[in-house]
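User: Teach me something about this protein's shape.
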Amino acid sequence: MATDGTNYVLQIKYGNAWKTIGCGTSNGFTGTTGVIDGSSKCSGRYEDKQPGRIGWTMEFAGKAAPVDDADASLASFNQLSAFQKSGTIFQIRQVNLQHPEDIIRGDAFITSLSKTSPDNEAVTFDASFQGRGEYFTTPEV
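Assistant: First, the predicted structure itself:
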């Protein structure tokens, strides 16, 4: 049985509170592992590779929350813009609201932020977050 992504949200720690980023339509996590190539003339025909450094990113796409932060539980585009401009490193998590133990979290900073304002349509924005250090799949202690 497939899992419905509706209950998965991306949240940032803002002050002492977790805020859901905008009104998301899609969010995701990507983990990567670099490759160390130890191949040489001594390796023969076969490559000698092993896992290297681990990295991760999170992505968000959705509707922009009110600029004035009318809903204090939502992180607005302006709040994220302030983090991006200052180079702030902050806590981020992707969490299943129905099952809070289903989580991916860590420290990150914003690498890309865009806002689109089409005529007669909802204002949307996209954001990419670069993980810093280890990510965790357990709730905070």
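Now, about its shape. The longest strand covers residues 99-116. The mean pLDDT is 90. If you'd like, I can walk through any region in more detail.
User: That's plenty for now, thanks!
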